Structures are given as structure tokens and as C-alpha cells.
Amino acid sequence: MARPTRCRRVCTEPTCSGFLPQGESAADAVTLTVDEYEVIRLVDYEKRTHEQCAAQMEISRTTVTEIYESARFKLSDSLVNGKALVIGGGHYRVCRGDRERGCGRNCRWALQTKLNGKGEATMRIAVPYENGQVFQHFGHTQQMKLYDTENEQVVQEQVADTAGSGHGALAGFLSGLQVDVLICGGIGAGAQEALAQAGIKLYGGVTGTADDVVKDFLAGRLVYQANVQCGHHGHEHHGCHGEGHCGDDKHGCSGNGGRCGE
Predict the structure, then answer these.
(1) Is the distance from CB of 5 to CB of 63 less than 8 angstroms?
(2) Which of 4, 86, 152, 170 is at 20 to 30 A from 250, Cα to Cα?
(3) 17 and 79 Cβ atoms separated by less than 8 Å
């Protein structure tokens, strides 16, 4: 008797149920199961290793490899042969961030549950974080420190694991946590655009201790680079350019080489 397939844990169900090719297409459709979608999301989009993906989905690394290969073939079949792609079905359960219903780990659901008490008067600030400092490569940060502030005072702090989210996924990660402001070091143009689309205000080119730069921001004396631009290859930085200072306007400044409000 075959052993039953173990349910694979997924963070959330896909927002789209399928895709249709433009132009003349084949009559057949390809079905990508939700667990296959989750493996593609974790490995290809969030750039996690198969081992990290296995831990997140609570399955073996061998199973991740099998699912990944199946999913990649289905995607190629859809692209090459012009077949409609349908997303649905499979053996999975949706994580809800607690031990009774889901993983209970530091996943996006768990973190949102902890931080869902944000009020209208609260401004949430995120800082890429490593050993107490502002981590200088946004796209490779492993942790974010989150600060809830009210009346220019920090009322709550928490360090969140980004779980391997890449450049584009980090903007969605922060948006899901209702972040209003990002203070960071180096950051590329694509990530800046994604943050702007998410409505997150950016203060880049910042160095120093994370706690201190947040205090400087709240006090209106944060030194940052309004037009920060970073070119990088791998983990190296090849320079950031731009200049500006955050002054009295806490809701955004146009960098002009001086202090806002002067």
C-alpha cells in the first residue's frame, strides 16, 4: 500500500488562478499545483536554497527537488507550446502563523500576527539589520529591525527574519508588514521602484547603528542620500551617489544638498 502524500505547508495561496497565452494557443492546459507554485516562489523568486525551502514547507529536500523539476517542466510546457496555465489543487495546507493551525515560526503570517496592532497614529520604520548596524546591501539583508513610533518616540521594536527574500520580494515583505518608512544603506533602482509602488518612503545611503539612525530620523537630523544609486555584482558594492538630509518634514524630503525646512 502506497504511503499517503504528506501535506506541504504554503505561506499563502496564489493571488492568480492561472494565465492565458496571447495569440494562437494550444487547446490543452497545464495545471500547476499550489505546492508546485510554492516551491517556484521560494526557490526562483525568493532565492532560497532547496534546504531552506524544505524546512519552510516541512518536507524533505528530495521532495523539494522532485516538485521543483515537475513545476519547471510544466512552466516550460506552457511557454513553449502556448498552453494555458492553471494554478490549483495539490497536497497542501496554508500556514496561519501559529502552532495550532500552521508553522508557529518566524514566517510572514506569524510576523503579521504579532504586528497587526498598528494604529492610525503609528509610523512603522524598517532598517536592514546586522549586528546592531544598518546593513549596507538591501537586497541581501537577512534581518529587518522594525520600529513602531508614535509622537516621535519608539514604542515597540522587533527584529524580523526576511527568510531569504530577494530584492523584489523584500518590497512585498515590507508592504505586508505595513511598513511606512525604510532607512537603509545601498539599494538598487529596481528595489527603489518597488518600494515606491508599495507606498514606502525611502531614506538611503545611511550608515551607523540602527537604533541611532532611527532616533536621528525622528529628531529630524538624519543624514541620508536622496538619490542613492548602487551598482553591485554579487555581494560587492561599487559606489552610491546622491546627497540630502532629512529635516523637519518627517513624511518625505526632496534632497537638495541642504536640510529640509531650511
Answers:
(1) no
(2) 170
(3) no
Q: Are strands 84-87 and 29-32 parallel, antiparallel or unpaired?
A: parallel
8 A C-beta contact, residue 54 and residue 64: yes
- Number of Cβ within a 10 Å radius of residue 80: 8
- C-alpha grid cell, residue 106: 518566524
**Cα angle value 197/203/208 (rounded, 5°):** 145
Residue whose C-alpha is closest to residue 130's, from 159, 101, 107, 109:
159
Of 205, 210, 138, 150, give the one whose Cα is nearest residue 174.
138
Reported pTM = 0.51
Residues composing the chain: 262
Q: How many CB atoms lie within 10 A of CB 9?
A: 19
Distance of CA 95 to the CA centre of its chain: 17
Q: Are 164 and 47 in contact (CB under 8 A)?
A: yes
Cβ count near 27 (within 10 Å): 7
Angle between helical axes of 167-176 and 189-197 (0-180°, round to 10):
20
256 residue type, one letter? N
Asked if pLDDT for residue 137 goes beyond 80, the answer is yes
**What is the rounded average pLDDT of the residues 155-169?**
72
pLDDT grade for 46, boundaries at 50, 70 and 90: confident
d(Cα 94, Cα 96) in Å, to the nearest integer? Answer: 6
Q: Rounded to whole angstroms, what are the CA distances from 23 to 81, 84, 87, 176?
A: 12, 12, 21, 35
Contact in structure between 148 and 218 (CB atoms under 8 Å): no
Which residue's C-alpha cell is 538611503? 204
